[in-house]
Amino acid sequence: MSALLKLKAKDAEDLQVISAVLQDAIAPVCDMVYRDTDRNFVLVVQRLCREQQGELNRICCAVNLDNITLTQLKGFEQQDKARMLDLLAILPDEEGVQFVFAGGARLRFTGADWALHIEDFGETWPAACSPCHDDETGQKTEKLDAGQ
What we know:
The protein has one helix at 12-22, and strands at 6-9, 26-28, 32-35, 40-48, 57-66, 70-74, 84-93, 96-101, 106-110, 115-126, 133-134, 140-141.
């Protein structure tokens, strides 16, 4: 087992690093919760371990966003617990932070003094497939796992 990742962001520059680490993470809607009394949002994602050379694995990663005053959903319903979202980016905005998912889904959090923490937990497992994205020409590019 490789070392577990643990990072913290408090500004837009830090957020770029965490966004890159979590790009293409799978985010089950059932693993999202906003705790109003604590002004805290918690999400568990299955992130790609890009830091490992030669193999493509996933690991569970806790995402904890503190000091937020408002949460807004777009493009999905919190009651759709079976839905899986593909995380594309985490971006700062004028009033807080946005999580951008494939298909137009978004989570927007308002809070001037937000802090974002991520921490891996558990063991890695082989990723079933590699994400694909549009290239510069607008064509889909697909990456297959090693051995396929």
